[in-house]
Write a sequence for this structure.
């Protein structure tokens, strides 16, 4: 949970909140801190804007780490469209940080083309988290271990975990995850096999009951016929 006394006493004054609620952002801001908060959906963005949080990070599903359900361009377009449609109610520029799939000059140019006509409404910034992980500075300043960066450089495949519990995160497909995923596949196949066997059993029971019913009807008809002959 939020350690309010610790934050109040030691800082820092600038806090980034990922996978947190808007109410948490408000609590942190009320302690005298500047808040950067992830808003991966329009509903969260509206709430953060209404409660005057300092910076909203719009991080699409192309990013690393945790993310929401929308891709970057869809998320950005929805937020910008909302601001444009409600610009009369916006008293000062909104601080927005765009993130998710911004890796080179092409992606930054694509983002810039979207922002051009909205600069009267926003103060835009760019977050390039994955690109920073691959920089020399992050290792020399000891912000990241060289082993972590080596894993990034030697792997090109990623996968998504946490979908079933709504906490999606992008991770590297390493040996541990590969084995774990293989185990899940084996369990799924076993479960499917059990379900298949149960279905076959039910089908056999249904066929048996059907034949018993037909035998009963035939026996009833035969008995009735014998009774009529006797009469």
């Amino acid at each position: 949970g939020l350690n309010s006394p610790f934050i109040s006493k030691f800082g820092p004054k600038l806090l980034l909140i990922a996978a947190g609620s808007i109410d948490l952002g408000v609590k942190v801001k009320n302690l005298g801190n500047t808040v950067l908060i992830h808003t991966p959906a329009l509903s969260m963005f509206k709430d953060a804007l209404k409660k005057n949080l300092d910076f909203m990070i719009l991080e699409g599903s192309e990013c690393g780490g945790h993310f929401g359900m929308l891709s970057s361009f869809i998320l950005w377009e929805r937020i910008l469209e909302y601001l444009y449609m409600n610009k009369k109610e916006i008293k000062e520029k909104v601080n927005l940080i765009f993130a998710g799939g911004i890796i080179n000059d092409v992606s930054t140019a694509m983002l810039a083309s979207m922002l051009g006509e909205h600069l009267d409404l926003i103060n835009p910034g760019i977050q390039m988290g994955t690109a920073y992980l691959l920089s020399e500075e992050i290792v020399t300043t000891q912000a990241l271990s060289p082993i972590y960066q080596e894993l990034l450089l030697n792997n090109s495949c990623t996968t998504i975990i946490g979908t079933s519990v709504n906490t999606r995160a992008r991770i590297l497909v390493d040996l541990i995850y590969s084995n774990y995923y293989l185990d899940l596949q084996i369990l799924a196949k076993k479960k499917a096999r059990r379900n298949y066997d149960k279905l076959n059993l039910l089908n056999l029971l249904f066929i048996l009951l059907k034949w018993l019913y037909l035998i009963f009807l035939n026996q009833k008809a035969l008995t009735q016929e014998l009774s009529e002959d006797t009469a």
